[in-house]
Amino acid sequence: MCGRTSCHLPRDALTRACAYRDRRGQPRLPEWRDPDRYRPSYNKSPQSDSPVLLSRLHFEKGADSSERIIAPMRWGLVPSWFKEDDPSKLQFNTSNCRSDTIMEKRSFKVPLGKGRRCVVLADGFYEWQRCQNTSHRQPYFIYFPQIKTEKSGSIGAANSPEDWEKVWDNWRLLTMAGIFDCWEPPQGGDCLYSYTIITVDSCKGLNDIHHRMPAILDGEEAVSKWLDFGEVSTQEALKLIHPTENITFHPVSPVVNNSRNNTPECLAAVDLQAKKEFKASGSSQKMLQWLATKSPKKEDPKTPQKAEPDVPQWSSQFLQKSPFPAKRGGAGLMERWLKQEKEEEPVAKRPHNQ
Predict the structure, then answer these.
(1) Contact of 66 with 23, CB cutoff 8 Å
(2) Nearest Cα to 108, choosing from 94, 120, 119?
(3) CA-CA 20 to 30 A from 261: which of 57, 100, 171, 225?
(4) What's the rounded mean pLDDT across residues 200-205?
(5) What is the tens place of the pLDDT at every residue in 60-74?
(6) What is the DSSP string of 211-256?
């Protein structure tokens, strides 16, 4: 399942992270709808607004279905046929949608049949591992593997095709398959756009943490096909819904358990053996620096910073046995990086309001 995410990038940076090529191969940045509703957060929960990608054709008749819009939507799908005057009166949970029953439940089958497919954007998502013989639940942050390249840090806007390679070369956003719907209040008023995240059986790498995971669209081709309902049928699009092993994770502090906590600490890696946050190696420092420099709130210019070291790809292969046995076999827990890089001064963290 997926019940908590992080999407903390400021609006302009999020836009650049979603750069794409349209059907003609032209570089594009998606346009925003209701941009003022977007609130960056390290700790998003159902019923909050999150950014999703969808085809422009949903809003403009005759538009190119390969062109994209970013719109903040309510997490937790409210079906268009819902008759009550308050979405909170919905009697069942629609934050997730199981892929194996998607065509059986009216709440999901109807919007899917209308082509209302979207891509939910996030830094990553949180999942809690239930442990045997204890009430302890260990949270993890789960995301795409990140690779530092020579162009990292280059986030200028794409003012011309020549600038295409400079659009975005930082954190790779997690792209999750979703379905959205539009609900009109019975008494009149603005339409409420809301979405659900499709879930699948967990991949082998995450099975020790949880038996379900979001349906992750891995790569631009998968994202394009899922969004382009004008050219890609429902049957073809559903072939994209399956587990992916291209995922990595690390344990985080229980501070994320409370959805009111909205700070970079929610994402920071912790050492489960020491039961405290460890000194960051070069690899984990990549995460901390990214959080601080890409956050909506400006850093104090007086805060000293050292040059960023070369950073290897984060990997979920650094595993050890957990002091808390997992429900399904041995738990997969991240140990300290086997090869410590030169430590550097941590970048100051700044809290953000959701």
Answers:
(1) yes
(2) 94
(3) 171
(4) 93
(5) 998 999 999 999 999
(6) SEEE-B--SHHHHHHHH-TTTS-HHHHHTT-S--S--EEEEB-GGG
Q: Per residue in 101-130, pLDDT tens?
A: 999 999 999 999 999 999 999 999 999 998
Q: Give the torsion sign (CA, 3, 94, 223, 160).
A: negative
Q: Which residues contact 48 (CB under 8 A, 6 or more apart)?
A: 39, 41, 74, 75, 354
d(CA 14, CA 164): 16
Contact indicator for 85, 102 with CB cutoff of 8 Å? no
* Terminal CA-CA length for the chain: 22
- Among residues 67, 127, 265, 344, the one annotated as catalytic is 127
- Look-up: residue for tokens 């020549």? 162
245 carries an active-site annotation: no
C-alpha 99/C-alpha 257 separation (Å) is: 27
Is 265 annotated in the active site? Answer: no
Q: Which two tokens stand for residue 97?
A: 């949608």
Beta-bridged to residue 331, according to DSSP, are none
C-alpha distances (whole Å) from 160 to each of 14, 17, 106, 116 are 19, 16, 45, 31
Measured in residues, the chain has a length of 354
